[in-house]
Amino acid sequence: MRTSNKENIVIVPFESMYSRAFKDLNQWWIEKYFKMEEADYKSLDNPQSHIIDNGGYIAVALQNEKPVGVCALIKMQNTGYDYELSKMGVSPKVHGKGIGHLLATCIIEKAKELGAKKLFLETHTSLAPAINLYKKLGFKEIKGVATPYERSDYQMGLEL
């Protein structure tokens, strides 16, 4: 668990009571910029079975005990990467407060704890603030990993 006293944020592991927030926080940004796709529904409708039960992890950012951000660590197969940093969603009410950075840092630490050597993520070039965050965390542009998303046009990797 990590905390940020500045905004009274606590990062906790996913529990079933956060399922609705996990979907809502992600669906908000996806529909704002793109459209929901089949792969989104799989992980957002079934976070326990699709992510956690398959060796992944979800971090939830709470502010005053209410979910304001989420981020997943999804186990990858046959890609050369151990896990994917994915499904990061932060409430627009708290944008610019460092919650994305806090969540991503937590996910990177969890990946190391699980023995990961390489992390992967994918995004879209129009999401410059996200790309800048990932670069600050040490991610570098890569190419060539198959994606289930039409919207993905920018991939990044991180050696741990």
From TrEMBL:
The keyword Calcium does not apply. GO terms for molecular function: acyltransferase activity. Residues 12-160 form the N-acetyltransferase domain. It comes from the Bacteria. Gene3D superfamilies: 3.40.630.30. Its EC number is 2.3.-.-. The keyword Transferase applies. PROSITE patterns: GNAT. Keywords: Acyltransferase, Transferase. It is an enzyme of class 2 (transferase). Transmembrane segments: none annotated. This is GNAT family N-acetyltransferase. It comes from Croceitalea marina.
